Amino acid sequence: MSIPDHARANFQTLLRAAADGNLALMECIDAVTGEQRYLICAIGRDKTDFVFTPFGHLVDGNPFDAYLLPSEPLPDPTRS
Length: 80
Hints:
Layout: H1 5-19, E1 23-29, E2 36-46, E3 49-57, H2 63-66
């Protein structure tokens, strides 16, 4: 499994924002579940306005319980 180009580009943007000191942690409400979330956002400017671009949210609880590492694909039983 490889990381798609759009995810790599977003990660590079996130790294640049961090290097420039342009990251924010914002408290928001999940649009689907209504739950409170803490978002990692890059801060940009549009003339005199600030623009906050969300890149992800912090995991509630133990992040090691929330995700699984990708595993090797299972063999296809129809192929010899």
